[in-house]
Amino acid sequence: MGLFDKLKRGLEKTKQILRTDVRDLFRAGEILDERVLQDFEGRLIRTDMGVAAANRIMTRLRAEHGGRTVDVNAIWKTVRDELVDLLTGSNNSLWDLNNPLSPLAKAESGPTTILVAGVNGAGKTTSIAKIANLLQKNGNKVVLAAGDTFRAAAVEQLTMWSQRLGCEIVRKESGSDPAAVAYEGCQRAVQTNADYVIIDTAGRLQTQKNLMDELDKVRRVIQKVIPAAPHESLLVLDATTGQNGLSQAQSFTKAVKCTGLVLAKLDGTARGGVVVAIRQEIGIPVKYIGVGEQIDDLELFDPKGFVDALFEK
Amino acid sequence: MFETITQSLGKAFTAFRGTGKITESNIHEGMRQVRQALLEADVAYDVTQDFVKRVTAQAIGEKVLKSLRPEEQVVGIVHQELINLMGPVDHSLAIKRDGISVIMMCGLQGSGKTTTCGKLAKRLKEAGHSPMLVAADLQRPAAIEQLKIIGQQIGCPVYAEDPASSNPVQVCRNGVKEAKKLGARVVILDTAGRLHVDSALMSELQQIDNSVSPDQALLVCDAMTGQDAVNSAKAFNDALELDGVILTKLDGDTRGGAALSVKAVTGVPIKFIGVGEQLDRLEDFHPDRMAGRILGMGDIVSLFEKAQQEFDEDEMLLQQQKMQQGKFSLDDFRKQMRQIKKLGSMRDIMKMIPGMGNLLNAMGDLNPEDDMRRIEGIINSMTPDERTNPDRIDRSRRNRIARGSGVQPADVNKLLKDFSNMSRLMQDMSNLGVKDRVNAVRQLASGGFMNPGADVNPRAVRVQRPPENRDDLKDKKKKQRKDAKKQKKRNRKK
Q1: What ipTM does this complex have?
Q2: Does the beta-carbon distance from A157 to B141 stay under 8 Å?
Q3: Contact by Cβ (8 Å): A209, A241
Q4: Vertex A104: Cα angle to A103 and A106 (nearest 5)
Q5: Full-model pTM
């Protein structure tokens, strides 16, 4: 139950908001009128899922339950189905929940490269440490590439993590070309027969064109060492992020073709509902969620579990 | 999503044009648009509801001014109300005349506290104070190193202790003592990022507050924060009684609704905004500009300010004179391009001009920077003589220039053509008054922009006939010819 409990704990507050209101909002036997529906829409929007996604749920709710007597369970089922539907998307990318590594693509031979990107302060470095830890625990050899050569002491931060984890790290002095670091990281991984190489990048806002180009360059350069790289490019998203998350996902996908999201900092009151909007409009699935500051606080994302944890009684 | 509110309001109001008055019934649809715009800008749900209610009440019964269209008027009311809500501003930091002033920074993880500490220290230093930084973030690996590097960059002392044998409260207390020894006048405490629901860490913050009693407690808040901004701001305010908020990462494309939410819920003024990773990128907060941003209306004032900062005034005057006299050369053109480059990327600039935001979408993948670089290369390959007299460029010169700058001769030709069009445009423009000039820019934005054939002065537009059938056209011509023949015959008879 470890996984589920943590997820639940992380979403405790969200659940409270949605559920306490639900008891007040939908009273069995009453007529489901516009006032109640409006209230419920407010609750949905407070999860940051965005106006469009909330509208979709509301439309269905109106069509199926509007003006009728409230049947709490039936309403729940509708909301839950719609949300799970939104989160699983069309290509139904569900992975094996018992294997924490199943969302990650694996190279056919040689090291698998994972490129990690995101805006400033999203939690990239911490997420990398957590993913590296997960990989190592499952018997893989990991090489880290400290590609954040811009922010003061970012390399030191990742180095400290690598020491704690006991994995190899490739680093260069601050200010050097991140693509060069990534290149060397891949080379080292090939030489030492590592299973995974994780490339850190400096945080960048998606509107900075030249920095996004730099990211594209990293992608191109590592392909010289490992042609199929990056096998995974993960976008780290802060769970407190609002609708700007959409713009982030859009721009980062353009630059490095994101294959998945890591939703960090889901241990607060933030709901991370923007992933619903991202899934709906851009189609990138959430692969992992960060639920705490400890190294083990990384969980596999499970849409059903996510929604269930929201509505669990 | 990036549609400006004025536009969507425009759609909502077209049905009610000419009613003369804003009434309860016709404002409903418009307000729905306002509500959606605010929610998409991440303004908290409750704040949005309240806001919409208030604006509706205010707008009802107002006469639609003849000079304005109703959507513009409603946006005006919304805009003003946003400004009222986010103001008044207070950019002071309560630096004491004598003794040591302590500023404590707090916020969630990754909101940008450490960088903002550096920016603030730099700002204070430039204002003639002697700041000192205290590294009270003992949690995140290498946070102390980060602050030390930043301190080095701005030439400001940093106090730190070994995280293994100390705690944040002690570091802060000793930091203030150290400041007394060093003679530093302002102490900035960089505390660790914490979640507002983590009661242990929040009480640690209160302990620091009690033990060093800071003069200012500032909350650092990520401008991209969504609906949760109200919860965290409220929790921090309850724990510390904040004196101000610093909004960070506003250099992205976030609409920054968090600003409104935080101010509305806590009542604490927003003092500064962070607009870049460099340490000088800290600006005063202006509610009017922020209001424009939330509504997606552009920020022409900031652009002017920026331009004033970056542009050399004498140079500008000289160029303007040259333009008026029609002596604008390719050399001047290159100079201007370089000045524009200093302002930032073309996309950033265009975002700040009202109405230009839509063009960004139209541009798609087009990259003006690349074009500008290519154009500069072409001009660089010309001789000074060619730059002042572009007419002199013949085929052989053109080929030489193309070879020198690595482009096709046709590209050189295009540049020359564009340039002659542009200098004509500029000449026209400089003869216009301010108002006409603004109109001209608007016109450019609406269609003529990036179209070298565009004209500033509105030309008499020929009435467009509906497309005719080819056969009809043939018959018509035939008939015309016949008529003409008849006429000629008649003329001869006379």
Answers
A1: 0.84
A2: yes
A3: no
A4: 135
A5: 0.74
